[in-house]
Specification:
InterPro entries: Bact_Lucif_Oxidored, Luciferase-like_dom, Luciferase-like_sf
CATH class: Alpha Beta
CATH topology: TIM Barrel
Number of helices: 11
Largest sheet: 8 strands, parallel, barrel
Strand content: 15-25%
Radius of gyration: 20 Å
Number of domains: 1
Strand order of the largest sheet: 1-2-3-5-8-9-10-12
CATH architecture: Alpha-Beta Barrel
CATH superfamily: Luciferase-like domain
Pfam family, one: Bac_luciferase
Distance between the termini: 18 Å
Keywords: Monooxygenase, Oxidoreductase
Organism: Metabacillus malikii
Protein name: LLM family oxidoreductase
Shape: globular
Structural class: alpha/beta
């Protein structure tokens, strides 16, 4: 962590690697171009002094990352300090042994910078793809998380469950550079997910994509209370906030530049989900208001929003998704630069007072 003092926060960026058409030109980049840009973005984030870079998992032709560990391994070779995490690994349909070994290998390649953020993900295509039933989601997640935590803590594991074949005195290799890989659970908004994260004693990362962030405060309280009752130390119960973001020198510039791409993003995401709605400019203006969690604006506005959220949650991590909707790569780079050079230093300075 680059921060010092009594109160600190890790700040970074993440991508889900969506491949959408540029709404102004109609051009869609190739998966190879998308992956190349992601590696370049991570390199810039590292050089600029951000703390975390994350990449998501999807199994669709309109996303470029079905294997976060592989892309993060390439990023590990192009960076020096930035921590590398999945955002998220779809744990219900991943084999926990394979997941742990992939990220333990990433930890070796990155000299101890790997993390796992496990969650459900936005889509369900991985369930039929890997032979699982969506009806079993909760049971699968519980079982796989239990096993993942055992793998993280022990070199040799004996385990049996309902969905995966049993293992007997299995050697789990390689072991990571870190004593244990940091593990987080991604939470979309359900109390059940917050309770689950607290019970397991891992970090909780909340995806707050819009609306008033106050509605997530009960989840944080529930998470911390559950973790405390389960006997976990408070410093194990870290909270992260993730969300969509776009930064520019002025608020007007940020809104004008981002709206076509944000509307485009929701149009194709909603279409993927079988809905035909389109985001109007008036609706967008409401979504970026001062009480909203959507982080679109000037550095002054973004610093104020992050500090307001920190006052609400007391979270230890903030991650911005800055590359959605088919944006030109120069827009993504500009947002990363502003986050690293203007927003993050001011947030850290305020929190150290």
């Amino acid at each position: 962590m680059t921060t010092t003092g009594k109160t600190s926060i890790e700040i970074g960026v993440y991508t889900l690697a969506d491949i959408g058409p540029n709404p102004l030109t109609g051009k869609t980049i190739t998966p190879k171009e998308r992956v190349t840009e992601i590696i370049q973005a991570a390199k810039l984030a590292d050089e600029a002094g951000l703390d975390i870079f994350g990449i998501g998992e999807h199994h669709r032709l309109d996303y470029a990352s079905s294997s976060p560990a592989v892309i993060l391994a390439a990023i590990a070779q192009a960076t020096n300090n930035i921590r590398l995490t999945s955002t998220t690994s779809v744990l219900s349909t991943l084999d926990p042994v394979r997941l742990f070994e992939d990220f333990a290998t990433l930890d070796l390649l990155s000299d101890g910078r790997a993390e796992i953020l496990a969650g459900r993900g936005a889509f369900i295509e991985s369930f039929p793809l890997f032979g699982f039933r969506t009806d079993d989601y909760d049971e699968l997640f519980e079982e796989h998380m239990n096993l993942l935590l055992q793998l993280n803590q022990n070199e040799t594991v004996t385990w049996s469950g309902k969905f995966r074949s049993s293992i007997q005195d299995a050697e789990i290799a390689p072991r990571p550079v870190q004593d244990e890989l940091p593990i987080w659970i991604g939470v979309g908004g359900s109390p059940e997910s917050a309770v689950r994260a607290g019970k397991f004693g891992v970090g909780m990362a909340m995806a707050i994509l819009g609306g008033n962030p106050n509605r997530f405060k009960p989840l944080v309280d529930l998470f911390r209370q559950t973790g405390k009752e389960a006997g976990h130390a408070p410093d194990m119960l870290k909270v992260g906030v993730t969300g969509h973001a776009y930064f520019a020198k002025t608020s007007e510039q940020a809104r004008d530049e981002f709206y076509p791409y944000y509307a485009n993003y929701w149009e194709y995401v909603n279409r993927q989900r079988g809905m035909g709605t389109r985001l109007s400019r008036d609706d967008f203006e409401q979504m970026v208001g001062p009480e909203s969690a959507l982080l679109v604006g000037s550095p002054d506005q973004i610093v104020e929003k992050i500090l307001k959220q920190h006052e609400l949650f007391g979270h230890q991590r903030f991650l911005a998704q800055v590359d959605i909707g088919g944006q030109p790569f120069e827009y993504v780079m500009n947002s990363i630069e502003l986050l690293a050079t203007e927003i993050a230093p001011r947030v850290r300075k305020e929190l150290q007072k």
